[in-house]
Amino acid sequence: MANIRVDLPIPIYDGMPVTFKAPADCSKITGLRVYYPNSEGVTTSQDFILADANRNNVGNINNLFTANAIVKVILDTDEHMAFIQNADTNAYLEGRFNEYLLLKGGTLTGNLQIKKTTPELIMTHTTSGRYLNVYVSGDGNVYFRNALNSNTRTALYLLPETAEDWTRAVRLQKMIDGTADYYNIFGEHNVTCGTADLTAGTSSLKNGSIYQMYK
Length: 215
What we know:
- By secondary structure, the chain is mainly β.
- It folds into two domains: 2-98, no CATH class; 120-185, no CATH class.
- The protein contains one helix and 14 strands; from the N terminus they run E-E-E-E-E-E-H-E-E-E-E-E-E-E-E.
- The chain has one helix spanning 94-98, and strands at residues 2-7, 17-21, 29-37, 43-51, 70-76, 81-86, 120-124, 131-136, 142-145, 153-158, 170-176, 179-186, 191-194, 210-213.
- The chain is elongated.
- The termini are far apart.
């Protein structure tokens, strides 16, 4: 197996795009050997394994490129991988390449779809440790939660459009140590009106509710 030699005039860096011309025979090519000047101006080299966007090694690029094709890769200096891209469109080559986004990030130009029984999206702030958790339950409710801890969290609940009971269409939940309080944002609120009079001591309202009578 062999590496393609690539000579660069500047030091390499993580995420660096590199363009090269594929050789006439690609059958034995598995990687790149990149020559570049280090911080002291001395020429040094580093080997990179050719990989797809899912970090799978590409063992033979003969079925990907024709002779003298222009190839673009993105260097990963930590894992010594060169992720293959199309030099003209920046899209990953072949179907197996353009279905993935690099683990280190990138630009997503299509829709993000998660299809499973209970899909969940989690974003974590690395400094504070706080979360944004978007979750769809089996009954179709959508939850926006600020913590993964099931006993202490604040969450916004959205009922599905097929729900028959819209008295709790949008709710805010505050849960501390397993005890939850709910606040209706859209639907049946804590303030209600009616024509029936209430008798003190016998007519009951839910805790925190206000009843207004009109005639």
